[in-house]
Specification:
This protein has helices at 56-61, 92-95, 116-120, 204-208, and strands at 4-17, 20-29, 32-37, 41-46, 49-50, 70-71, 74-79, 89-90, 101-107, 110-114, 158-161, 164-176, 181-185, 195-200. With 209 residues, the protein is mainly β. It folds into 2 domains: 4-50 and 65-109 and 164-208, Translation factors (Elongation Factor Tu (Ef-tu), domain 3, Beta Barrel); 111-161, no CATH class.
């Protein structure tokens, strides 16, 4: 059975369950359309893009799922043993229920070029003894003669964020079958409107146990 769906990240909010406040992220999960079938996996499409803004090769690829001169905006492949047909639609309520345990994958927010204090949590140099300009400096980055170079992977200043991140063991608190919106406990990666991949980690038997 398919256990993964594409969605777009919405704003954060809060809800009360049994008198307890829970911070949640609103996610528009689906509806996704099956665009291609492989052995053991399928390709899902999400969103809409005007046909004039879709390349000719992709128009041919989406020829069986184009509706109202619009093609899917995003595509991702997911594993499944379920037999699906090209063009079939998958909604959030077809996969997820309240209290499901999930993982959410996305591209984190880009922070631009950042120093070592912000990027890696360095403590910086001393604030006294005449060190007027070394408070956020990285300090020594290696030895002299041996090895005589900076080792690979050394934590230094550079671009921060804009990386693939996966948050595991989040909970679905609410599933709205009419709007395909789900409320996920806690924050998830990415800016507003970004693509996220939501995967259910528990089975139906575990949820009913």
């Amino acid at each position: 059975m398919i256990d993964t769906l594409l969605g777009t990240k919405g704003r954060m909010d809060q809800i009360f369950v049994d008198g307890v406040r829970h911070p949640v992220t609103r996610v528009k999960a689906g509806p996704c359309v099956v665009t291609q079938i492989f052995e053991g996996r399928v390709q899902l499409g999400l969103g809409e893009r005007k046909l004039k803004n879709t390349t000719k090769p992709m128009q041919g690829h989406f020829k069986n799922v184009i509706k109202d001169n619009k093609a899917p905006r995003y595509t991702r492949e997911v594993k499944t043993d379920e037999t699906l047909a090209v063009g079939s639609e998958i909604k959030a309520s077809d996969i997820f229920l309240a209290n499901d345990t999930i993982s959410v994958s996305g591209i984190s927010k880009g922070k631009g070029f950042a120093g070592v204090v912000k990027r890696w949590g360095f403590s910086g140099g001393p604030k006294t003894h005449g060190q007027s300009d070394r408070q956020r400096a990285p300090g020594s980055i290696g030895q002299g003669t041996t090895p005589g170079r900076v080792l690979k992977g050394k934590h230094m200043a550079g671009r921060m964020g804009n990386e693939a991140k996966t948050i595991k063991n989040l909970k679905i608190l609410v599933v709205d079958s009419e709007t395909n919106e789900i409320l996920i406990s806690g924050p998830i990666p990415g800016p507003l409107g970004s693509l996220v991949v939501i995967k259910r980690l528990n089975t139906r038997e575990e949820l009913n146990a």
